[in-house]
């Protein structure tokens, strides 16, 4: 009997038949996915996972001030005071009008550790230390540690243009970059940092934090602006011309240049000095479209080459639908015809997000359903289905194809939902990412039952003590036999459109073999630069990457085997939750 060596590469052909089983939940919150109750399972705010993927709705005591009189918009779940318990920051979509809308302010709630939350009084201050209320038409909240002090900060974009309609329903004067003092109290430094964006039109809708240039400082995207984080330096261009040369064709530490060995002076990322940070906008220099009114924006791994492309989705005006911008040689270039038209248009399609739905290692894109406009231009309907675009891989034209199976339910309806959020989490831990859609007075959880055989692995980038505070960090992983295949993923900060994915990164792969993983994380000591963390892991494993600390300047990696979940009634009594 002869043994045939198994092929290392499973290399499953593209599977365009994406299938879901849908369940409905009465969850009024915008979709934020996290391990909210510390059980190791993912759930949406407003639900509890029983550990086997069954979600049940729950009242969240302490969040009563989010509803019902308040115009809740986006909600992030994140540990805002580093006690290991996820907290909540929430904005509104409303007029700046304290008299008629006194409740419509951004709010912060800290987790009491028993499933209840307590609101923080006066959580926001201006740069002079005076309490401020954040009001206006808020959009996607981004949470990340922008100043590398270990505490999660927040960027909250607001509409800032004028005049507003209707008259008297004013927009906010600015967007806010809120630096956390570690207790869930924040100081706005948006103006000093260059991200306050007064009179911004088109407004920011989708937003994302990502360390785009791999220098250890988390960068920020919104409305065609790509704000590169300069760190706590007062005059970066004059003080360090090599880092930001006048000619931006030579942008240092480019997205995808992990192995670069450029000799320019590195500032001191990870410095515990927490002076004000500043950003420089590279959007226009990189050719990003600044005039596009998006209804969702997301960095995606579109071709496994180690760079991130950007998908921007437009619902109205010219060139509607999602568009893909590839990044090469310091320029974003639109990939023509990446998303084929189906003749239905994109009217009132609010919301776009991306994840690899069929575990072939290539990010796929979901665009929320749309509404046929009446002759008056008002969105009514709905009658344009949710689209699921499957990435066809290298050299395919067009790059994306619609799923063979239309999303069922055809129509979700988002009138009871503040925007068309789609958030990703593997709720039943079967290695296929599931989707939670904000729907009409309910949430639809679509369990991914797509027939795929490709294996997967999971990577969690954590703080040195295990905190989930590394939002925006970038992972690159390559199968050993194919080093040119680079899966590039970002720890989710809140992204796409009013959505938050699970914190652990789930990577499906075409290659059932060991993968080399690379991550750039800042060291904790001033002047020590970046720790390049590299390790091997295999499908079926989970890696927990701990950020550098004073005692472990290169960080630490812990790899274990993913334990398959299989239902056993005997185990039910050990399930933790609120009961
Ligand atoms: Ca911080
Ligand atoms: Ca950066
Ligand atoms: Ca895919
Ligand atoms: Ca799943």
Could you characterize what this model shows?
This protein is an all-beta fold. It is built from 2 helices and 37 strands. It has helices spanning 190-193, 236-239, and strands at residues 20-25, 33-34, 43-44, 47-49, 55-57, 72-78, 87-92, 107-111, 117-119, 124-125, 142-144, 153-156, 176-180, 186-188, 207-210, 219-222, 225-231, 278-281, 294-300, 309-314, 321-328, 331-334, 352-355, 364-367, 387-391, 400-402, 422-425, 434-439, 442-448, 456-462, 474-479, 487-490, 505-508, 515-522, 530-537, 541-546, 556-561. Strands 10-14-13-12-11 form a 5-stranded mixed β-sheet. The protein is globular, with a radius of gyration of 22 Å. 53% of the residues are buried. Residues 1-9, 235-274 and 571-579 have low confidence and may be disordered.
Widest β-sheet, arrangement of strands:
10-14-13-12-11
Tell me roughly what share of residues is in helical segments: under 10%
Total helices: the number is 2
Strand elements, count:
37
Largest sheet: 5 strands, mixed
Summarize the structure.
By secondary structure, this protein is an all-beta fold. It contains two helices and 37 strands. The model is unreliable at 1-9, 235-274 and 571-579 (pLDDT under 50).
